[in-house]
Design goal:
Elements: H1 3-33, H2 35-56, H3 61-68, H4 71-98
């Protein structure tokens, strides 16, 4: 059994679940702080969906279907989740730059150093 692949798959699932829970916590905190911000975001996404569905269907059936499924709220959730993913990925990259070791630092203290030619 390949334990590394199993653990990698479990880690991806746990990170996805954590991102989902953090997105919900972000929206709950934003709602608790001031619900007007979320309502403004819902309205902005709704106008975006209206404009997009107007290009596809002039009769308004597509817009009605999107509103019935609360697409503006799902779009906002996707945007929040993507924002959290971007922040996490940025923190990972910055952390790897900060804690990166050069090859000479990784050598043990009694190992001979590379000698360069002097001109």
């Amino acid at each position: 059994m390949n334990w590394q692949a199993l653990l990698r798959g479990l880690a991806k699932a746990l990170l996805g679940t954590l991102r989902y829970a953090l997105t919900l916590a972000l929206f709950c905190g934003l709602w608790w702080y001031d619900a007007r911000y979320l309502n403004q975001a819902f309205d902005a996404n709704l106008s975006l969906l209206k404009a997009g569905s107007g290009l596809v269907d002039g009769s308004g059936k597509t817009e009605a279907m999107l509103r019935a499924f609360s697409a503006e709220k799902m779009l906002l959730f996707g945007e929040g989740s993507g924002l959290l993913w971007l922040l996490g990925k940025s923190a990972t990259v910055v952390g790897s730059w900060i804690f990166r070791r050069s090859k000479t630092e990784a050598l043990p203290p009694d190992a001979p150093r590379a000698v360069t030619k002097q001109r």
